[in-house]
Specification:
Bound molecules: magnesium ion
Shape: globular
Helix content: under 10%
CATH class of the largest domain: Mainly Beta
Strand content: 25-35%
CATH architecture of the largest domain: Sandwich
Radius of gyration: 25 Å
Structural class: mainly beta
Largest sheet: 8 strands, antiparallel
Distance between the termini: 63 Å
Number of helices: 1
Length: 246
Amino acid sequence: MYLIKTLVVCSAILLPVIHANAQEKAKPEDTEFWEPVPVVVTPGAGTAAPSDAIVLFDGKNLNNWVSEKGGAATFVIEDGAMTVTPKKGGIKTKESFEDFQLHIEWRSPSVVKGESQGRGNSGIFLQSYYELQVLDNFNNRTYSNGQAGSIYKQALPLVNACKKPGEWQTYDVIWTAPRFNEDGSVKSPARITVLHNNILVQNNTELKGKTEYIGQPKYVKHGAMPLALQDHGDLVSYRNIWIRKL
Ligand code: MG
């Protein structure tokens, strides 16, 4: 008993001393690392593309896009923006992407027409399969997981950050592609973070699979895929689209 008491007392005295010695030997430099060096990227002014971005649409031409139905992209360019040509089909990028940061600006028509899903509907299909909804939800109720900023039929936005119809709105997206095993099973699901007009609406949300209009979403194995813009029959416009591969 005496021995145990002695040991406890000795430990209580000695441990702080040992600890203090260890602290003295450690230097600030011990926890610094100098390699690798982050690449220098020059930020764009305002929402302009940073120096390492791929500019997908600069308001001048549709050179980076094709029709989803094949052939030339059918959206119409006017005043630095491109607008859906209803019933001509969506468009997609020529280039394919995996993980990325995306900036895109959209505008629903100033002339309000229709309601619920029928008002200013389009969509941004990340990797062609996963829809970030574009919809005029300014004083326009629809199902929550189908409104602007939702991952369509999967995840409602944290808030409704819509501007008035006819006003330009922004989405800033961070996309982590799903990864698959050899046998097609999911290694890691897709994840998305979205700022709508600089307000967080999706916070590292995990996707359940491809966007489905009817039925439950599920994954099907794929690699890099184009970015696509939906033709839902409404005159939705887009401008200033740039992407950074991660
Ligand atoms: Mg849509």
